[in-house]
Design a protein that fits this description.
The chain is built from 17 helices and 13 strands. The protein has 424 residues and is α/β, with parallel strands linked by helices. It binds nicotinamide-adenine-dinucleotide (NAD).
Length: 424
């Protein structure tokens, strides 16, 4: 099938590459010309295990193309995935300017029946807005072309995105159009070989399913962080508690590791957007408020421990930071706990040497220039380089190479053998 994927970020590029891997002809579109130029040369804008190989292979085989021109991509295709960002607005609502911008452009150039599929995480009612915008543009052109808007939220996890897309737990298809349903089901058929994974429902139900899933996962994290804080005050080892409760199949082992708060481009913004949706509907989401509050406080826990040990004035103190990405397996630092911690350390006068197995380029690009210029932070070449002469190591992201480090080598490098462990 001929597919266009609009937005070539974590979701768009992975979806496009995986659909191409299944034999489809895919065109990935992005406004960011540097991204597109890089992709044409095989340079990926993001780190994601297994992605580079399938992008290069499918590009070489002619099944995966890249362009910054949506009208050009539209010439060959009648299936459009919208996978652009939906960042939080000032009031916590999902900012739909990119999604609706794509809808406008689609309406301006549509020439035949099309299925427009929202893969971005969007509030309930967005498909109706997309439909209205496309129809408005068609009206301006005096054209009467049929189209359907489907909700197909994405559940991939950064760090395992290709694996998740290839073997999804479920594929949610939100539509009341029989014609669109058949097309989208056919598209996902190769991902359903071992058993049926598609769940078809109403458009609004599908939109809400994505928010409910992310809010549930964020709730598990905040709940476990709350337990960890309580355990610490009561002389209880939360790791034993984790194993004790995880063995209950109703609870399960996933997502119950305590840590220094959830980050990334999804959980924080999606919990905020759901709270905003609730308020718009005159409903006070008490649980979601608590989830956010616990997470906000959790992001200070490591810093509070450092202050409890060294006092509030950290001038002359230096810290090694292990892990900058918001979780292992990705180079994404959006809303990462590491950034909040580093800002607090710098404000208190400390300096840092930081290391991450994948996020060094992101750190160079996204951390404030003043931190580098003022020698507040230096990026290390290797995990052990981040330890030379430091007063303590702060472990923020639980990458595998940090699990069994060489403690005796570390002791020799550090001023004192002190570790603040944000991941237990
Ligand atoms: N990252 C994840 O793990 C994940 C998982 C599931 C769902 N989602 C959702 O998927 C959506 C995309 O997330 P992401 O992390 O891939 O975002 P991203 O920021 O990595 O990528 C978005 C891309 O869209 C491009 N873009 C913006 N406007 C455009 C336009 N008009 N035309 C063409 N390209 C345009 C941007 O240049 C950017 O490259 C969001 O709604 C997000 O909540 C993300």
């Amino acid at each position: 099938m001929q597919i266009t994927v609009i937005g070539t970020g974590y979701v768009g590029l992975v979806s496009g590459a995986c659909f191409a891997e299944m034999g489809n002809a895919v065109t990935c579109v992005d406004l960011d010309t540097a991204k597109i130029d890089g992709l044409k040369k095989g340079v990926l804008p993001i780190y994601e295990p297994g992605l580079e190989a399938i992008v290069r292979e499918n590009h070489a085989a002619g099944r995966l193309r890249f362009t910054h021109s949506l009208p050009e991509a539209m010439r060959d295709s009648g299936i459009f995935f919208i996978a652009v960002g939906t960042p939080p607005g000032e009031d916590g609502s999902a900012d739909l300017q990119h999604v609706l911008g794509v809808a406008r452009e689609l309406g301006q150039h549509l020439e035949r029946y099309a299925v427009i599929i929202d893969k971005s995480t969007v509030p309930v009612g967005t498909a109706e807005k997309v439909k209205a915008v496309v129809a408005e543009q068609l009206g301006k052109r005096g054209r009467n072309i049929e189209f359907d808007v489907v909700s197909n939220p994405e559940f991939l996890k950064e760090g395992a995105a290709v694996e998740d897309f290839m073997r999804p737990d479920r594929v949610i298809i939100g539509t009341d159009s029989h014609r669109a349903r058949e097309i989208v089901e056919e598209l996902y058929a190769p991902f359903n070989r071992s058993h049926q994974r598609t769940v078809v429902m109403g458009v609004r139900d599908a939109e809400m399913t994505k928010y409910a899933a992310n809010a549930m996962l964020a709730t598990k994290i905040s709940f476990m962080n709350e337990m960890a804080n309580l355990c610490e005050r009561m002389g209880v080892d939360v790791e034993n508690v984790r194993q004790g409760i995880g063995s209950d199949s109703r609870i399960g082992y996933s997502f119950i590791y305590p840590g220094c708060g959830y980050g990334g481009s999804c959980f924080p913004k999606d919990v905020k957007a759901l709270i905003h949706m609730a308020r718009q509907n005159d409903f006070e989401p008490a649980v979601l408020h608590a989830v956010e509050l616990r997470n906000e406080r959790q992001k200070s826990v490591l810093f509070d421990k450092i202050v409890a040990r060294f006092g509030g004035d950290l001038n002359g103190r230096s810290f090694g930071i292990w892990g900058l990405a918001f979780k292992p397996g990705t180079d994404d630092m959006r809303e990462a706990s590491s950034v909040i911690l580093m800002r607090k350390l710098i404000d208190a006068g400390a300096t840092m040497i930081a290391y991450d197995p994948a996020a060094m380029d992101t750190a160079r690009r996204e951390l404030p220039r003043a931190w580098f210029a003022g020698n507040r932070i230096r990026l290390a070449e290797h995990q052990y380089d981040a330890l030379s002469g430091v007063d303590a190591l702060v472990l923020v992201t639980e990458w595998k190479p940090f699990r069994h480090p060489d403690f005796s080598a570390m002791k020799k490098l550090m001023k004192a053998p002190l570790i603040f462990d944000g991941r237990n």
